[in-house]
Design a protein that fits this description.
Helix content is 51%, strand content 6%. The protein has a 3-stranded antiparallel beta sheet with strand order 1-4-5, with no helix packed on it. It has a 3-stranded antiparallel beta sheet with strand order 6-7-8. The chain has a two-stranded antiparallel ribbon with strand order 2-3. β2 and β3 form a beta hairpin. It starts with 5 loop residues before the first strand and ends in a 27-residue tail after the last helix. The protein binds acetyl coenzyme *A. Acetyl coenzyme *A (ACO) binds next to loops. The site of acetyl coenzyme *A has 19 residues, from loops.
Length: 433
Amino acid sequence: MKTDMKKLESAELKIGKKILNLDVYEGALEERCIDISKLRQETGYITYDPGFGNTGIASSDITFVDGEKGILLHRGYQIEDLAANCTFIEVAYLLIFGKLPNQEERLAFSASLNANSMLHEDMRQFFSNYPEHSHPMAVLSAMVVSLSTFYPEIEDESESIHLTVTRLLSKMRTIAAFSYKKSIGEPVRQPSWKYRYCENFLSMMFKSPVNNYQIDPIVERALNLFLVLHADHEQNCSTTVARAVCSSGANLYASIASGVCALWGPLHGGANQGVIEMLEKILAGGIKPSDIIEAAKRKDSKLRLMGFGHRVYKTYDPRAKLAKQSCVDLLNHLGMQDDPLLDIAMELEQRALTDDYFIEKHLYPNVDFYTGIAYRAMGIPKNMFTVMFAIGRLPGWIAHWLEMKADREQRIVRPRQIYVGKNVLPFVKIENR
Ligand code: ACO
């Protein structure tokens, strides 16, 4: 809210003979904005900003990103510290409740996650009605919005938000694993009280009545890290979509389901699947790394170097650095250090980072560049990669939804446009057309 920002000197906007004084504000870490909320009312003009690259849609105390310096903070904590010291569940707690949990709070949170981890039996039946090769992102979004039919209490706010939030966090992981089991035609596996959050996910994904899958603590740790790296990233596309849906008064499940859909696209969360498909194509001999780089540079080509570039980061994405190191460590641990996809990824990165086009446009690897290689090494199929991103991003979506609900300054999200279509036409009856 404006009251959370520092008011600076005002800015002057001159349109024709009219001069408008606009308030200027500063956030906690020197980001500045010009308040244009009265612009149309006072001048008749609106701003034009496709993709909202210059538009601050809210003030927020959840996450800070400095894209020039490569800094990412959640509630004031550096991503490097959180990645080294916290489980995903602790970071989720931090984002949603605003503070790191103490021992007692963490145990209570874990107990609640455990108690809410199963799916309603009727909901489990839904899985059998999807076609066999359904994309798990479609199943995930549909299942998340379906939760609102099983837990309608959300509409009248008659249960604690703590319970709603824990239920969603816990069940999302179960839904994701069930959708995978469905896609390979195996019976689903229920969560267990014996396991921590990530262990439970690995168990539901990979245990079956006919194997002896053992949960590797190093894999569990890597999974925790990847989820932590995805936990929030302020006003990204999916979060903004979830916030926009929230702004209309829609419930938490509906808002999160819309966030899942927005994440699916290849320019956002779907990029992790796109990266592996690109690497596999190179491995199969379909195209050389140098050709990919050249094609990505061409104005007339639709191809982009997947996992490269970011709206905010104009330097190396700090999450990509951590993901790359963890990916290399994981592959070493699993005896997969010679994974040809890792070699290809490193070659592509090297070529791009020394190529004038990528240097001039400040294009660096983003969080998605190395995560897919690690997920693949864990045994997670590529159509589940974006689901992994969604599980990771869930605490961020929830935190933004709660923040938006509490922000009295927020209004329904409703941008304007500049109409460039036809002026009034004489109506022609169908028989005369
Ligand atoms: N490969 C080649 N060229 C690129 C790439 C890329 N990966 N990314 C950006 N560019 C070029 C654009 O063509 C554009 O060139 P121009 O100025 O000559 O027109 C310039 O760099 C700026 O790019 P924009 O698309 O305007 O940047 P924007 O901020 O709108 O898009 C995005 C950011 C979508 C991430 C883009 O970099 C991209 O498509 N990357 C590949 C997909 C990807 O990895 N997405 C994951 C993003 S991170 C996340 O969601 C977790």
